Amino acid sequence: MLNIEHLLTEQRYLALDEISTVFLAIGIAQYTIYHFKYRKYKNSAIAKVIDYVEKYYDKEDYYVYMPIVQFTNNQNQKIQSILNIELDDQEYPFGKEIAIKYNDKNLEYVLKDMKIKKFVYKNSLAIGMILMIISILYLHLNK
């Protein structure tokens, strides 16, 4: 009877260990993909389009919409800025997140749809590590 309980405990540990290993592997793979694919956006801030400025050009006789974006810089200050680019309001609606690359001298922008975000990868890594720790503790506590 004791042997069967020990086997069941070991089976539970192995299942938990496999799940945690899978989460850890997925997290490491995703974080690696993020690091190599988006490393050029390392100093970027995620900005939200909060409004549009309508600008009229007399010579060409047409309107353009320049987005007003809000983002947080390195000193945790909220900054609002008008991007000097032409955008259609259907292309980048309110609340859409874009990546803005900036430095001290001027505001450079890089438009990128940031559907894949850094915190997703960090969370999957954290879930894998937590599950790994739980499986190790489970093994040692049930010996």
UniProtKB/TrEMBL annotation:
It comes from the Bacteria. Keywords: Membrane, Transmembrane, Transmembrane helix. This is DUF3592 domain-containing protein. The chain crosses the membrane at residues 12-34, 119-141. It comes from Holdemanella biformis.
